[in-house]
Specification:
330 residues; 7 helices; 32% strand; globular; 2 domains; 6-stranded mixed β-sheet
Length: 330
């Protein structure tokens, strides 16, 4: 709790109610695990275009793009959302991913006119089917005219419609004090402050991989189904050759799938098919209407939906049924 009356989540609360909120109403949270970087300089567009999977050159001011930083072999370094401004590029990314991503960028930054600044801006996410209605009631008039993947300026910063967890949602970028005031206004308008685990449950239910959670150092972007962050029509960029080969030849041997468990199982559990390990649980949660579910990158021998695996973990073992993504309620 702070002086404005805003509280970022409900400590000790059951995950069931926050998940129902995100399925029926609106919830919000300041995403402390995210950070905001600003890129300026005459060469910023050309440089970032060649360093990521997003079509930066084709983007127009006012747009938001999902993107990936990849190695030469298309292994995932980090993911981000790019907010395109007239005079700069704003990169919203994971706080733990950024040090490696920055090192990767600076390795290629030689004579380019590009400046990289770590800003003090924070990120507030508003999720749920009533998110747009609540944002409007909270007095953020700029949100009303925004379509998906578009942003607008607000007195305190920026607001954009960013479906970061797979459903229509709004993100605000501003200083923390300003976002805490927005949080109080959202609460007065009927939204609920939620914990990180509720957003994690929403992510898993929508079948979206989290970089660093569902991916490892050698995970290829397509193995994690990160296609929404890849432009398949842009020119050359770091990692493109591997992406093109895997797309053209269908050569993937591992891929992200959903799992439906007979009971809860912790991440890290080994997944066995006929006694042979075909993957490990990387994310797991319980979600209304779906029950105990999870994600795993599986060997191609286990890709058929309906395949029954055995999950062996520290908290015991259980059956795990392979599901296509996104999950359905059957």
């Amino acid at each position: 709790m702070n002086g404005s009356g805003y509280h970022n989540g409900e400590k000790g609360a059951s995950p069931a109610r926050p998940c129902h909120v995100l399925g029926e109403d609106a919830g919000f949270r300041i995403l402390d695990e995210r950070m905001v970087v600003r890129m300026t300089g005459e060469d910023r567009v050309a440089f970032l275009h060649g360093m990521c999977s997003a079509d930066v050159k084709g983007a127009r001011p006012g747009s938001i793009l999902p993107g990936l930083f990849l190695t030469e072999h298309a292994h995932v370094i980090g993911d981000f959302f790019l907010w395109v401004l007239e005079d700069s590029l704003i990169v919203e990314t994971g706080r733990t991913q950024w040090p490696r991503a920055r090192e990767h960028l600076e390795r290629f930054l030689v004579a380019d006119d590009v400046e990289i600044e770590e800003t003090g801006l924070c990120v507030l996410d508003v999720e749920g089917p009533k998110a747009g209605e609540v944002v409007s009631r909270a007095g953020i008039a700029e949100a009303g005219a925004l379509g998906p993947w578009r942003w607008a300026k607000t007195p305190a910063g920026f607001i954009g419609q960013v479906p970061r967890f797979g459903a229509p949602a709004w993100s605000l970028l501003a200083g923390r004090a300003a976002l805490e005031q927005v949080g109080s206004a959202l609460a007065c308008a009927g939204a609920v402050a939620i914990e990180a685990r509720a957003l994690e449950a929403l992510r898993v239910a929508n079948g979206l991989a989290s970089v660093g959670v569902d991916t490892a150092e050698k995970t290829i972007a397509l193995e994690a189904r990160l296609e929404r962050a890849i432009s398949f029509n842009k020119g050359c960029y770091v990692g493109q050759e591997t992406i093109e080969r895997a797309t053209a030849r269908g050569a993937l041997k591992k891929r992200l799938f959903g799992l439906k468990f007979a009971r809860e199982i912790a991440p890290g559990a080994a997944l066995l098919l006929d006694g042979r390990e075909v993957g490990r649980v990387t994310s797991s949660t319980v979600f209304p209407g779906l029950g105990a579910i999870g994600l795993a990158i599986l060997h191609h021998s286990a890709w058929a939906p309906g395949t029954v695996l055995r999950a062996h973990g520290e908290n015991g073992e259980t059956a795990a049924v392979v599901s296509e993504l996104p999950f359905d309620n059957n």
